Amino acid sequence: MKQFPFTPELLDALPEELAELFRSLEIKLLEEICSRLKLADNLNEVTIQDIRALRSHGIDLEEIKKAISKTSSVAMDKLEKLFDDVVNRNQAYYIEMITLAQITAPETLISARDIEAIKQQTKGDFKNITQSMGFLVDNGRTMLPPAKAYQWALDNAELQIQSSAISYNQAISEAVRQLADSGLKVVSYESGHHDQIDVAARRAVMTGIVQLSAKYREQSSNYLETDLVEVTAHIGARDKGIGIENHKSWQGKVYRWSEKPRTSKKDYPDFVKTTGYGLGDGLCGWNCRHNFYPFVEGISERTYTDEQLKNIDPPLFEFEGKTYTIYEATQKQRQIERTIRKQKRLKAAYKASGQSDKEKLVNIRLRRLNEKYHAFSKAAGLPEQRERLKVLY
């Protein structure tokens, strides 16, 4: 069977709707905060007392809390439906595989308890995202919950005005820029590493899908009594680093899972040692879209030959004087997408805070970035992933 239930392209697309939800939340929170800051900007002469009066209203920002709660609730519903689809796809695929191998296919491959455990783990990640997210302000030194970001902006403006170092309008403008430039970050790592909220949401979903699918792969291998697996392959696989970090070096091949009873007659490379399955920078690790499937010696056929794998990527190409591999091109495409999303946050913040002149400048940058995105994608031969640029209003 060549048509796997979760191709690399499908794995990449599955979490996108949930990522869009959190991008929408990000914009809503920015608009809420910045529109409040705009209130004092309508006065001809702003005093410290005016700022303090403004700060005394709406510090709790109940609308922000409602927005977070609503988005989290909707995301949970969508996550539940997504997992149901993952279960159904895996169940249909592996039962058919076992049937074709002339082995009696069980009605259920994975226990409901295993499925529920993975669902709950992923839901826990989502709850952690909504509880630990915040704006990275003070030039990246301070993380603040959304409801505190408004108070920080006004406190910061007050201190700067009192020092006579900067005008009120300049102080508010700088606060708006920092909030929008940061976007919603997520504090969910002991190392202190920060991720954009849509990136964290995508990772949580992808991890859940991969873990659930791995349960099916493990169980079906046991039913088929095979110690061999075939790893998927895709264009633009990571070609940097050495060993398990270089995904292109091990994709598309057959390996022996040494932890399983030996049934294969030929010698194959060790599955875990070669691919790094179970490690962050290996197979099914961070941002990896590869998968693996049971392979039965003498019955299964490889999806790709060694020659096809050698030539799976298109040739190098040049854009604006720089040469790219297809992997480097995908990374560049992601970088442009992140920049476009950043500019959209700035646009929403400037619009909500009434800074129309800066909003116009952002519109010019967005137009140029979109033109560059189109031109680069065309030059690289990559499909434009416009869904990654969306913000749901």
Largest sheet: 4 strands, antiparallel
Biggest sheet strand order reads 2-1-3-4
What overall form do the CA principal axes indicate?
Answer: elongated
Mean pLDDT: 85
The beta-strand count equals 9
Low-confidence stretches: 41-47
Proportion of residues in extended strands: 5-15%
- Discrete helix count: 13
Question: What is the helix fraction of residues, given as a range?
Answer: 55-70%
Distance between the termini: 42 Å
Radius of gyration: 25 Å
* Multimeric state: single chain
Structural class: alpha+beta
Q: H/E series, N to C?
A: HHHHHEEHHEEHEHEHEHEEHH
What can be said about this structure in brief?
Helices cover 58% and strands 8% of the residues. With 393 residues, it is of the alpha+beta class.
Q: Could you list some keywords that capture this structure?
A:
393 residues, alpha+beta, 4-stranded antiparallel β-sheet, 3-stranded antiparallel β-sheet
Topology:
Layout (H helix, E strand, L loop, with lengths): L7 H6 L2 H26 L6 H8 L6 H39 L11 H21 E5 L4 E3 L1 H17 L5 H15 L1 E4 L6 E3 H28 L3 E4 L15 H4 L3 E3 L14 H5 L16 E4 L10 H5 L6 E3 L2 E3 L1 H27 L3 H25 L13
Antiparallel strand pairs: 1-2, 1-3, 3-4, 5-6, 5-7, 8-9
Helix pairs in contact: 2-4, 2-6, 2-7, 2-8, 2-12, 3-6, 4-5, 4-8, 5-8, 6-7, 7-12, 12-13
